[in-house]
């Protein structure tokens, strides 16, 4: 992956706060859910409930697909990312605490949280490591994507 496209991917990750992530249910059907995320380089992190369907799905199969994008009124201004990735639970307390400190930073306009930030024991934190990244950029042509293997 060249440096220019990596910078484009990192910029898109920094510009957004939510993603749609699809996990696999026990019956094989995908389950897509919107979650908040933070990123460090190309690695993404998200939280979910301890016994959520996402957490249970990922305990069986760590493969995920995700999208990060935004709404636009200009068809040719559509940009975004889609990824095939693996999502692993964060078990290291230091890494988990770092992620929990990063999350409020994605919301600089939020004066205070409506509740205390959960502790690492109260949530599942997943580290998402991309395998394939597709960069969508309609300004380069209708439906234009650049595909990269990590």
From TrEMBL:
Its EC number is 1.-.-.-, 1.4.3.5. It is an enzyme of class 1 (oxidoreductase). It holds the Pfam family PNPOx_N. GO terms for molecular function: pyridoxamine phosphate oxidase activity. This is Pyridoxamine 5'-phosphate oxidase family protein. Residues 5-130 form the Pyridoxamine 5'-phosphate oxidase N-terminal domain. Gene3D superfamilies: Electron Transport, Fmn-binding Protein, Chain A. InterPro entries: F420H2_bilvrd_red/Heme_oxyg (IPR052019), Pyridox_Oxase_N (IPR011576), Split_barrel_FMN-bd (IPR012349). It comes from the Bacteria. Keywords: Oxidoreductase. Transmembrane segments: none annotated.
């Amino acid at each position: 992956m060249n440096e220019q496209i990596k910078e484009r991917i990192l910029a898109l990750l920094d510009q957004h706060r939510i993603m749609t992530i699809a996990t696999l249910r026990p019956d094989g059907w995908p389950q897509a859910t919107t979650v908040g995320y933070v990123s460090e380089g190309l690695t993404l992190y998200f939280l979910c409930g301890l016994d959520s369907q996402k957490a249970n799905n990922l305990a069986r199969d760590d493969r995920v697909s995700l999208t990060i994008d935004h709404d636009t009124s200009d068809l040719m201004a559509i940009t975004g990312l889609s990824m095939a990735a693996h999502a692993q639970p964060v078990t290291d307390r230091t890494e988990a605490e770092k992620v929990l400190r990063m999350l409020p930073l994605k919301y600089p306009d939020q004066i205070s949280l409506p509740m205390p930030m959960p502790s690492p024991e109260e949530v599942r934190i997943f580290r998402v490591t991309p395998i394939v990244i597709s960069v969508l950029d309609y300004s380069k042509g209708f439906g234009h994507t650049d595909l990269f293997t990590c």
